[in-house]
Amino acid sequence: MSDGSTLGAHSFSAHAWGRNLPTYEAIRTMPFNAALADGTLSLERFRHYMLQDAHYLIAFGRALAIAAAKADDTDGLVQFAEAAKVAVVVERSLHADFFESFGIDADAFERTPMSPVCHHYSSFLIATAYSEPYPVALAALLPCFWIYAEVGRDILGRAVRPNPYDAWIDTYAGEEFHEAVQAVIATTDRAAMGASPAVLARMHAAYKRATELEWMFWDSAWRLADWPV
Fold first, then answer.
1. Which tens digit of pLDDT belongs to each residue from 93-149?
2. Hey, which of 7, 47, 85, 195 would disulfide with 14, CB 3.0 to 4.6 Å?
3. Cα 121 from Cα 209, distance rounded (Å)
4. What is the 3-state secondary structure (H, E, C) of 164-196?
5. The Thiaminase-2/PQQC domain covers which part of the protein (predicted)?
């Protein structure tokens, strides 16, 4: 697991990770991820998760594209434009493999509405990317990258193999994904260095809310949550 020892002692990311460590621990140990690691997660729950995650990735890609447009240098522009492409094209190929195994076609996906939590998280990211300055947008996007990388490696370390969810585990525990995450952390820290105290406070608020929504997303899949009315 990452901690302040591998980051700048006074960096935004070190502070944000430390402040939200209890929520990360709650995510790491929640029933969904425990069952995913030991291979006992029901197909019904994983199917719910993958359908909602496919919806989420479209919104995540749009938020990344907005962040790219707001980037304060060309490196950031290229980085987040490419990340938007990866979110929509590469990660969705992982979903396509699972969808095929579950017998889910494009029409079935389109007929499945966003869950309340997926809708909330997606709306939060797009609204933050549109309305907030570049550093705050990055802070809102960072938990999805970082928490998935840490959870992926944590699950890999305790996973039963072979596992029906090996493809998911290998994607998020892989070195390529971790290198991309470290680059996003570094860009967020650079953006924070020039931020005012007020913007830094908004960055921490955005990071905290996104981390809470990460927990809620997995919990929603575990409960097979839908709209109550």
1. 767 777 787 777 778 888 899 999 999 999 999 999 999 999 999 999 999 999 999
2. 7
3. 9
4. CCHHHHHHHHCHHHHHHHHHHHHHHHHHHHCCC
5. 31-223
- Whole-number Å distance between alpha carbons of 35 and 196: 43
Given the structure tokens 């749009």, which residue do they identify?
62
Smallest Cα–Cα separation from 32: which of 178, 200, 168, 127? 168
For the chain, the structural domain boundaries read 10-222
d(CA 67, CA 79): 10
DSSP state of 9: T
CA distances from 89 to 9, 39, 92, 129, 201 (A): 35, 27, 5, 20, 33
Tens-digit pLDDT profile for residues 52-100: 998 999 999 999 999 999 999 999 999 999 999 888 776 667 677 777 8
| pTM of structure | 0.92
Judge contact between 92 and 57, C-beta under 8 A. Answer: yes
Residues near 17 by Cβ (< 8 Å), separated by ≥ 6? 2, 3, 4, 7, 24, 146
Query: If you write DSSP's letter for every residue of 27-38 in order, what string do you get?
Result: HHTSHHHHHHHH
The Cα–Cα gap between 32 and 219 comes to 7
Count how many Cα atoms sit within 13 Å of the Cα of residue 82 in the half-sphere of its side chain.
10
Letter for the amino acid at 49? Y
- 60: which 2 tokens? 């995540």
